[in-house]
Every structure is written in C-alpha cells, then in structure tokens.
C-alpha cells in the first residue's frame, strides 16, 4: 500500500495542518492522519496523534474512533496498553479497533501486520499480539484503525443510589439482560463530591454512589433503552434519575466524568500524589469486590475513591497520599495490593486497561503462573532476543 | 481454578449427559460443558463440543454463544481458524468471544492463557494469538467462552434486488450508516435457486440477488431498524421486501441459508466436488469485487455461486466441478485464485474466516510479504521449534 498524504475534505485538511504549521514538523512529531478512507470506515494514523484530536479532525465524515481512555492519550500508548474507556461496554477495547500496525522490530526490520480488511483469518493475529505488549515487542510507527458511524442520538443519564452495592447490582443486571447502553460508569460519593467541587456541570449532584449512563443509537432505540434502565434502577432502590437537559449539558457532564482523575489531581495538596489503579473481575463478583474495596479505602482516612467502567467488570481506585510519609504510603500500598489479590482470587485480572508496567509484575505472576509467563517470555525472546525494547516491563528477563 | 463438573439446571444436565451415556465417554470425546457461569455470562467447554449443541444445552439460561459458522463446527476448530458466521456483523468473530484457552504446548507443558475476566490488559494477548493459529502453536484442551443474552426479539427479512451490485451497495450503505442489524447475508440468483430446490422454507423465492437480514434487540429497536432498512433498500431498487411470518418460518429460512453449502453438496453429481472459498476486502470495494467475480463464475458454465457475510466485507464462492476433468479443474482454479488476487489488490485478505491451511499458503505470502511471514514464523519457532504441530499449515518451515 502506498502511503499517500491524507486528502480528506478541505475543512479537515485545513484543521489538520493548522496547529503544527507544516509538513516537516507534523512528520517529526508523528502525529498525522495519513489516510482517511471514509467509505471503508477506517483511518491510517501515526502513533502520536491523540484520540480526541483524531475525532475532532474527522468529525465531518460522520465517523469516529470509539475507544476513549483519558483525554490526553495518544494512539501509540493506547496500542501499548490495550486501553479502553467509557465506551468499551458497547464498542470493546483497543484490540477490537486496530486493523493493522506498522512495526519496527528490534533487529530493524519493518513489518506491517495486515493489509486493510476489517475481518481476516490469514495467519497469526500479530495485530492482536502487538496491541497490549507495552512497547516490548516492537515500535509502532503507523496504525490503521476502524471507525464507527456517529450515532444518530446520544443521551446522558445520571442515577443516584443509596449504596454502592445497589449501583453495582444495577449495572450487573443491565448487562445480564442485554439492555443496550453505550457507557455505564460507577462513581462513588467521593467522586461525586470531586465533580461538584470542580464545577463545570452547572449543577450540584447528590453525594451518593451514582451510575452515569450514555445511551446512543437511533431515536427509538435510545428511548427504549432509557425506559428499561429506569425500571431496573427503580427496582434497585434508585434515589433519582436525571437526564442532561441539552447536548451541552450532556457534554459537560461526560467531560466531568472523563476529567475526574485530573479534577482529583487539581485538589492535591503540595507534595501529595494520586495512586490510580485498576482491576477487572467476572461481572457477578463486582458488587462484592466494590463493596469491600470501598470500605477499605474509606478506612484509610485519605481522599480515596472508586470509579470506573463497571459494565466490563473493570473499575479504578484513586487514592491521594503523601509519598514522603512512609507509614501512609505503606497503608495505601497494602489496600491497593489487597484489592488486586482479591480480584485474582475471584478469577479476575490485576489490570483491565492500564497494563502491567513495573508496578504489577508480581501481581501478573500470581495471576498467570510460571507456564503462561514462560510462554509470554518466549514470544518476547522471539521478537527481541537481546531485550532491547522497554526492558523490565511486564516481566523480568529472568525470574 | 478447580475444574468442577457442570452443574446447571437439571434439564440442562439431563440433556447434556443423555447423548453420550456416561461421564467416561463424554470426557473421552472432549465434548463436555465443564462449567456454566450464568451470572458471569461465560461457559467453560471442551474443544469437541459443537456450537449448536452448546447453544441447545444452555438455552434455558437465556444466554447463547453468538459465533455461528457452519452447523457442524466444533469449538476447537472454530478457535483454530478464528471463524465467524452470519452473526459477525453484530457480534464479531471467534477471537472476540474467547476469554481463555487451556493449551498443551509442543514440549508437553500445559498453559492457561488467562483467568476469567471479560476484559484485561495483563501481559501479552496469548488468547488472541492461539485463536486463528490453525493448531500450529498448541493443542487446545479447554476454552472459556463469553456468552450473550438471547435478544428479546428477532425478525428475519428477505430483500430481492435486480442486480448483485444493488444488493452489495445496499449492504455497504447500511453498515456505513450504522443501522443495527444482527446479520446481513448476500445470496446470488444461483443460491436462491439452491434454496428453492432444497425446499424446507415453504415458499418459492425469486431467482434474484437477495439480502437476508436478521434484526434483533428490543421490540422498539427491531422495528426501527426494519424501517430504516426498508427505506434504504427501496432507494437501491429493491424488488421486494418480505418477512418471515412466524418464528418457525424465520428459523427455517435462516437454516436454509446456513445449510446452503450442504444443499449444494446434496445436488452434486457422482464424482463432482464443491470448491468453497472465501475472501475479505475493505467494505467500499465489495460491489466491485462481487460483480466481477460473479461474472467470472457465471462464465465458467458450471454450477457456481456467491454468498456470504457481506456486512463484514467477507464473502464466499462455491463452485461445483469434476476434479477428474483436468481442464475444468484448471479453469476453476484460475477463477478462484484470480478472485483472491483481486481481493489482495484491494488491500483485502485471502481469507476472512476459513483460514490458510494448505491451499492459500502462496496467497498469504502475496498478502503479507516476507517480513510479516518471518515474524509469524518466529512465533511458530518459539512455541514449536521442532515443527511438530500441524506442520506445513499456514507457511512452510523454510521457503
């Protein structure tokens, strides 16, 4: 496939060149859209483009890239961790949206994992292997991504519950019944307070465990899903069910959720840090693990909260602590790793979307055992025998 | 995770044991359901269970396994080829529905790729690597599969078009607009005749290029999708739009589509064979490749047809020929490989769901080039250095 410069609609092209001021700088930053294939619903990009920037640039096509992790994330990093985000309930995770990758291997060979079909059974799924390999198998220089049509209608709803277990149970039952939602996020009382303090949504929300929903699709489909969700929430003791009253309010509300980590960071005292972590469990275990973890976080006496992508059995804990205080740090560490161990005991995973990196190498060993880590290590050895690429991440050279 | 015997509802258990007559035989055939986790929406199975049998046995749970290749396919083979089927438009392919695999490696080590979370970023995606590896990397002895809720409502619709291009264009536009369909199959005039000859649907269908649709979801959502599909079909010159009048008729109609290969086989003359092949292309190229390939198939003067999963950019050609007639076989071969080359020229794939096996090794080389095949070969070498597992499939030991 020849790499031709992106030549979409003129407004797109103007948008695209403007912020960088010229081709040379664009290329140096590796943040360009190289080809937009509207009729095929895919786009070829360089790895340093941010997903939000990508979506802004292609919006006139009526298409979007639906994987939505933290607002500043770039495609390359998103490939690295097999990230996801609030849209994963409906659209899946990064591995489901990458058609092919161009990769520079450790020995300098350049390889493209696939051509451009959305579906294939031709040989090993190298695309799916590089996605989530945290930069340890090769350097991604180009990615072809699937795009989805922007839904006709999107509504955002907010439902408060008396307990975190009621919220988690509602989420679990919705998934089990197959009621179509685009997003389903859980936020605890602390997170709702963070949103209130950060302002920007134009309302003061109840300081209660809350589910944020995004419903999307055709008008009739959305109305139907909302109705079913309301009924199910009521039967789980929902305190209130509110909708964004306008597109602007819906956008502000969702932004508040997406910015929650940054909002928490903004509330940091001097010298303190936010420990952000995630685990994933089989969905029936969600109410249990969330309830126990919430209690342990509250008992820390720190500014700590639970939020996340409950529709996938995946959630986050964020804890503000002072790393200079050894006793405090040790207590936080214990709560985090106890939560991870609890997820593993429930046949879950030490990370649903953040990756292993350095911090969860010992958890990965517990999760998978020596045979499976050994198989992963043999893949690493096949692609990078001299351990040149991101060494020490995911697992050690030798244990 | 301890492997506990399946202990679902009593009717399920009775169904499950009955055909085999006892535990020992069940285990020997490796066709058991080991665990059904209804609340987690997953199931642990042995590889020799057929997907239709699995769905029959778990139907009282309100859940089903949505990957639906040919009626006799077993889970192990479906893992091997990363298969799909008519449901792939909505539900994706095999790789999207496998949570973990237990695999015996070439050196005798037994490994489980994952625990049981539906979402994870913990280490390399070995599950996704083994799915589609055609038995060349390890022997799958157990699989945990995601399940989906059985939709509230399902309707089957049949739309005839004057030309195959009109049918293909309609399919492409529906996908592009994001109109929700569960299935969208294209059948050419020859295939419709096969269905008429096989009987069993209780009607005689027009011998015209036809789209078969399955709509599913909530009642309101289905009604909406049907309406949008009707309008779009009309604007593409649809000749007729008919619905199955009952659940029984819907089932018979869909079975007719699913059985189409067997129906064609049943029409074979003594000594003749059916060559069944598939390709996949970026979706905008579908009308072109289908039109050209259809003309070339017609020109063979044999019993040959096009059908397939047009919503994924993937379709099949089936050709009845006499392998004892060298001239005829050569002409068929030329049409097949010309179609494959055409798909590759369109940045497509030599196979969307059948796999490479022996027959498409040379096409895979054209599709991916030596660097990518080299990377696949290094994976093979890492897992099976002595080339013991399914040797000669996908690619050669040395080229």
UniProtKB/TrEMBL annotation, chains A, B:
It holds the Pfam family FAD-oxidase_C. InterPro entries: FAD-bd_oxidored_4_C, FAD-bd_PCMH, FAD-bd_PCMH-like_sf, FAD-bd_PCMH_sub2, FAD-linked_Oxase-like_C, Oxid_FAD_bind_N, Vanillyl_alc_oxidase_C-sub2. Keywords: FAD, Flavoprotein, Mitochondrion, Oxidoreductase, Transit peptide. Its cofactor is FAD. Its EC number is 1.1.2.4. Residues 1-150 form the FAD-binding PCMH-type domain. It is an enzyme of class 1 (oxidoreductase). Transmembrane segments: none annotated. It is found in: Mitochondrion. It comes from the Eukaryota. The keyword DNA damage does not apply. Belongs to the FAD-binding oxidoreductase/transferase type 4 family. This is D-lactate dehydrogenase (cytochrome). It comes from Aspergillus pseudoustus.
């Amino acid at each position: 496939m020849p790499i031709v410069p992106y030549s979409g609609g003129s407004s797109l092209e103007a948008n695209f060149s403007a912020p960088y001021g010229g081709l040379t700088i664009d290329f140096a930053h590796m943040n360009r859209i190289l080809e937009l294939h509207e009729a095929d619903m895919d786009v070829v990009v360089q790895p340093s483009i941010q997903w939000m920037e990508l979506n802004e640039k292609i919006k006139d096509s009526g298409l979007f890239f639906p994987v939505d992790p933290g607002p500043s994330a770039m495609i390359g990093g998103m490939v690295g961790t097999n990230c996801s985000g609030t849209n994963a309930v409906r659209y899946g995770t990064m591995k489901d949206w990458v058609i092919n990758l161009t990769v520079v291997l450790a020995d300098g060979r350049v390889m493209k994992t696939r051509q451009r079909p959305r579906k294939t059974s031709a040989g090993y799924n190298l695309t799916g292997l590089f996605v989530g390999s945290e930069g340890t198998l090769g350097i991604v220089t180009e990615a072809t991504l699937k795009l989805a049509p922007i839904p006709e209608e999107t509504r955002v709803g907010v439902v408060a519950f008396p307990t975190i277990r009621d919220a988690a149970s509602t989420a679990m039952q919705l998934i089990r019944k197959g009621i179509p939602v685009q997003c389903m996020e859980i936020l605890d009382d602390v997170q709702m307070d963070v949103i209130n303090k950060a302002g920007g949504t134009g309302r003061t929300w109840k300081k209660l465990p809350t589910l944020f929903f995004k419903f999307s699709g055709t008008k009739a489909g959305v109305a139907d899903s909302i109705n079913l969700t309301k009924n199910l929430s009521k039967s789980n003791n929902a305190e209130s069910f509110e909708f964004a009253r306008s597109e602007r309010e819906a956008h502000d509300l969702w932004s508040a959720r997406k910015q929650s980590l940054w909002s928490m960071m903004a509330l940091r005292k001097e010298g303190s840090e936010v420990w952000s972590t995630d685990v994933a469990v089989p969905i029936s275990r969600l109410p249990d693990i969330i309830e126990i973890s919430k209690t342990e976080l509250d008992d820390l006496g720190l500014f700590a909260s639970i939020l996340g992508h409950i529709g996938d059995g995946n959630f986050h804990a964020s804890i503000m602590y002072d790393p200079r205080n050894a006793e405090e740090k040790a207590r936080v560490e214990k709560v985090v790793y106890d939560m991870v161990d609890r997820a593993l005991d429930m046949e879950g995973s030490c990370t649903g979307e953040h990756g292993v990196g350095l911090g969860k190498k010992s958890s990965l060993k517990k999760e998978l055992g020596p045979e499976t880590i050994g198989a992963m290590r043999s893949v690493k050895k096949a692609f990078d025998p001299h351990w040149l690429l991101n060494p020490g991440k995911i697992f050690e050279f030798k244990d």
